[in-house]
User: Fold this.
Amino acid sequence: MSTLTVTVLQAPLAWMDGEANLRHFDHLLAAIDQRDLIILPEMFTTGFAMQAATQSLPETDVIAWLHGHAARTRALIGGSVALQIDGGAVNRFLLVQPDGVVHRYDKRHLFRMGEEHHHYRAGQQRVVIHWRGWRILPQICYDLRFPVFARNRNDYDLAIWVANWPAARTLAWQSLLLARAIENQSYVVGCNRVGEDENGLRYSGDSRIFAPQGETLASSEPFQPARLEAELSLSELQALRERFPAWRDADAFTLQRDGL
Assistant:
């Protein structure tokens, strides 16, 4: 498929209340139909809570909920959730296809300033999803600050960051999303939350969809719930890479640790 229709839902999150959050997203998703990709924020069932995994909805329940909306909208749909699994807690990006196929990416870079590394286990695998002719790299929040992990090895066309990124650092959020798009000659989607959490942190959202040369395809008003829409073109992306093949001059490297 040459084009990919994308919807991003920038929303407030109820603290540690999975059922309330799913009901809210049920309402938002009811108005959406016939898309290719729908993205929800990081920890969309709980908010960014360190104890979330011990009180979160079971993974099977979240997957069943995502599958219901994926089947109805014919879209790949997902966001990250806190989960307690064998071996510890993870911040896991779940993406579910209409046919029920599930893709998982566990957050690699844990936010030490919030002590996430004391409560969650870091993911070990970089994941690329193949969907309707597109190659998609899922990432979570703090991963955005580490460009080596997200380096395009000519293996993806679209990178997605879901986040609970506080308003105090929104300039970094917006700037790094833009940089990841330009340096990797890739489309970039950034889906952030809004509202205030129980730790007193405020979230401005500032969700964005960027084109490979840095053009803003969709943006949101700060501090407001929003639904962003964009249509991405694979043929235009491929033409850019052929016309301006900066990727050919990238430095070769190999990540040695943790199986990467």
In short: Residues 59-73 form the longest helix (15 residues).
